[in-house]
Each structure stands twice: as C-alpha cells, then as structure tokens.
Specification:
The chain is an alpha/beta fold and 465 residues long. The protein is built from 14 helices and 15 strands. The chain has a domain at 20-177 and 393-416: NAD(P)-binding Rossmann-like Domain (Rossmann fold, 3-Layer(aba) Sandwich), CATH 3.40.50. The strands form two sheets. Strands 13-12-11-7-10-9-8-14-15 form a nine-stranded mixed sheet, covered by helices on one side. Strands 3-2-1-4-5-6 form a six-stranded parallel sheet, sandwiched between helices. The longest helix is centred in the C-terminal third of the chain and has 20 residues, at 414-433. It is globular and about 60 Å long.
Length: 465
C-alpha cells in the first residue's frame, strides 16, 4: 500500500485512527506540503511568540531523562507549572522540586484541559512521543520531544508538518546538536579538512538492555504506584512483568528502562543513539533521504531488536557533495582497526564516528567533539576554520528562547529533527525485513517491497494520533 504523495498517511487496516485530514481540519492546520528532507533549513519554522516573558511549561514524563529535561528548562528560566507521569514515585520526586506544579497521571487529560502554559516537554518511552506531541501541537503549545522524535517514520512526517503548519516552537532532545563541538566539526568538513567525504562509519556500545529475546511468560501484580494501562498507552495490551532477578531490582521486563529494546515501545539501539551519533554526519554531510538501506544482524524476532546490527545507508550526490556510504554498528560491532588506522592491540572507543575523505581520515566523539586525524590519514593537521555557524546558548535555552520568538538558527527544531528521525528509523526497516530497502520518500514506502506495516502503526482505542 503506497502512501499518498506529498501528504499525510492513510489509516492502517483495522485501526481506529481518525483520518489525518480530519485531524488537520479540526486543529485548524492547513497542509504545508511535503518536507524537503535534504540539508537543514538555516532558520526554524516561523513560530508564535509567547504572550509573556516568563515561559510556563508542563512536563510529560518526569523520571529519568524527564527529570533532566524539566530541570534543564527550569534552569534556563522556565516556570514548571504542571507535571505528568504514570509512575507515582517519579511524580512525588518531581513535586518536591516543583511544589506549585499541578499533577496529572494521564497526558491526554492534561493536554485537553490545561490552560495558561506556553509549552510542554515530552520525555516518555518512544511510543508515546507522537500521541503526546500532536495533542500539544493541536493546542498551540511549544513542544520539546526527546529523541528519537517519534516511534515510526509516518509519525515523524506527520509531526513535522503539523508543527510547521501550526507555527509552534519545537525542539528534539538530542543535546549534542545544541553544542558547539558539532558546529566546529561541520566547519572543518566544509573547509575541506579531509576533502570530499565518500564513506562514514559510526558505532555505539548499545544496547545496554535486553534485546534478541522473546516475550516473557506469566504476569506479576502491578505495583500500586504504577499506572500500567497508561504505560502501555497506544501499544497493544500485554501483562505487567516485574523484576524477577535480584541483580536487576527495579528493572521490570518493560518499565522503567528495558522498554527500549521492545518494538512495541522503543526503537532499539539505533533509535536510542543514532540521533546523537549520526548527527555530525547528518549535518556536516548534508544528508537527506538515502537511496537504500540494508542490514546484517544476529537472529531476528518480532518482539525485540537484535543483539547487534550493521546497517548500511547509501546516499546520492547532494549540494555538490559526492555520493556517500554511511555504516552504523551496534551491539559490540565496530569498524576494523585497520579501517580506523589503529594497531591491532588498540581498543577503539565505545562510541564514535570515522569520516573517510579523498584527502584524509578523521574521527570524532559522540557529539562531534575531539576531531582527530587517524594515524594513517594523508592529512595530519588543518588550521581551525573561521566560524560560519551561529553558536548555541545551550540546549534548554534554545527551547525557551524559541518560545519567546528570538532568532535561533541551526537548532534541532522539527524541520530538522523530523527528517533526521525518518532517516534514522529507515535502518530498522532493513533490520526487521532483513532485505535491502530501496526507499521512496514521496511514497513513504520502498520501491522494491511493501513496508507500510512498519512505516506506520495502529493505536489502541483512545490513544489515536
């Protein structure tokens, strides 16, 4: 089944979704046309300026990374006026820090009824990102969403266009994009430090949670502090399974951490880390849509991501840059020491990137930091280029200033992070199909097979987007 060209997506067979066109009409959003998914726009989408100098935010998901996100926004000057989580323990902790905040256990209720706020932070498991964000955008709230922006490719396209059409300030939580390391790295590449780049390799030590496993048997009592139905949200119902190993106390089969490996809730090692590690390549090499993606993995099952994968993206010529091959490694796989220019007995870092240009080779850290010429690089040094990119005031400050209507180019707003998330999640299509995916971005489908069942998704009744 092909997706309508340059438009939103049809319903999955048997789903209870409202039609996307109905959603747009009900929300007062006009279609904005398909996103040009090449290089990043130099300015964010036009945003509606906050009516007050003091930015008032609500936090959805306030444990773990959510705790960091609401704290970061508060430190950047925001007032936290509402908190929502399905975990009573996390809510209690957050309430102690923000005693004036109103508490919610269901973001649907919060976003349907709350007034007097400028925006929300969404720091939940991946499968809640789009349902929460679209509800916020409908209300005209500025929207911060943790990486990856969405759980599916279709949701990324939908979220990007809805945010642009509604005119709300947005940001994805890949904090490295707000750092100056990646800006300096881009400037090195653009200045020709290693010449035109033909190949890039990037790797991570994730997953650090269980993958390559089947669904656990049995059912455990749901703790009284946990809203299990709220955790499942748009995903299919399944029983709660708590910690059954004394060494993993507090870490159940799914909540609060291991959801990342399950396809129902997370996007595996690729979704967790590629929005960080791929960002220097995405930005510096002006990557848009790949021509094809293919993957090698260990055994595949329908429940979780594999224990390891090697995913190869092929990108065409773009903006006077040559075609480039980008290879992703996880689960302990890495590019060879020979490729990295290292001696056989040298251990390469747990996370990083290698760029191979016509004039030399260079590595960098997760967020583009410490660019280093490899020992076997033809080029051994290069003068620091003059800055050409606007420097960032900081990740959370970017979001607050965007809400206030201040100029902020080069942030991870949804015009950048939506297409980026589409690109990242294409790798999981190759992992799950075990076939080469010849991608067609206009159709949001492959040219060589039907992957619509993986591109879009169904939602439990009451959680539709």
């Amino acid at each position: 089944m092909d997706m309508p060209k340059k438009y939103f997506l049809p319903l999955s067979p048997g789903s209870s979704n409202i039609d996307r066109r109905q959603f747009l009409a009900a929300s007062g959003i006009a279609t904005a046309g398909v996103l040009a998914t090449g290089c990043q726009t130099t300015q964010p989408q036009k945003i509606v300026k906050s009516k007050t100098d003091k930015v008032r935010l609500a936090g959805i998901g306030v444990g773990g990374k959510g705790w960091v996100d609401i704290g970061g926004c508060a430190s950047a000057g925001a007032e936290i006026v509402a908190l929502c989580d399905i975990d009573e323990q996390s809510l209690t902790r957050a309430k102690a820090k923000f005693p004036k905040a109103k508490l919610y256990r269901d973001y649907r209720e919060m976003l349907a009824t709350i007034d007097g706020i400028d925006g929300v932070t969404i720091s939940t498991p991946d499968h809640h990102h789009a349902p929460a964000a679209l509800r916020a955008i409908r209300r005209g709230f500025a929207t911060f969403v943790q990486k990856p922006l969405t759980h599916s490719i279709a949701e990324a396209r939908l979220l990007t266009e809805a945010a642009r059409a509604k005119g709300v300030a947005t940001l994805m939580g890949n904090q490295g994009h707000s750092g100056n390391d990646v800006r300096k790295f881009c400037e090195l590449i653009w200045a020709g430090a290693i010449g035109p780049v033909r190949e890039c390799h990037m790797w991570t030590n994730r997953p650090v949670w269980p993958q390559g496993i089947d669904r656990p048997e049995g059912e455990d009592p749901v703790p009284d502090w946990l809203n299990w139905d709220g955790f499942l949200g748009p995903a299919p119902w399944r029983p709660y399974v708590g910690p059954r190993n004394a060494k993993k106390t507090g870490k159940g089969a799914y909540h609060p951490f291991n959801w990342r490996g399950w396809w129902d809730y997370g996007t595996g090692a690729l979704g967790d880390m590629a929005c960080h590690i791929m960002d220097p390549a995405r930005w510096a090499l002006k990557l848009g849509d790949p021509i094809s993606v293919e993957a090698k993995t260990d055994k595949v099952n329908e429940e979780t991501g594999p224990n390891w994968s090697i995913i190869t993206y092929q990108f065409p010529e773009r903006d006077n840059m040559p075609p480039v091959k980008v290879v992703w490694y996880d689960g302990g796989k890495k590019p060879s020491n020979e490729l990295l220019g290292l001696a056989k007995n040298v251990e390469s870092p747990d996370n990083g990137s290698l760029f191979i240009g016509e004039g030399g080779k260079m590595t960098c850290e997760t967020y583009g930091g410490k660019p280093t010429f490899t020992p076997d690089s033809k080029v051994k040094s290069f003068p620091t280029p003059e800055p050409t990119l606007e420097r960032s005031p900081g990740h959370y400050q970017e979001f607050i200033e965007a809400i206030q209507g201040k100029r902020l180019g080069n942030s991870a707003h949804f015009d950048y992070s939506g297409p980026f998330t589409e690109m990242v999640l294409l790798g999981n299509l190759a992992v799950r199909t075990q076939r080469k995916v010849e991608w067609n971005p206009d159709r949001l489908n492959a040219n060589n097979m039907d992957v619509s069942h993986l591109v879009e998704k169904s939602y439990r009744e009451g959680w539709e987007v």
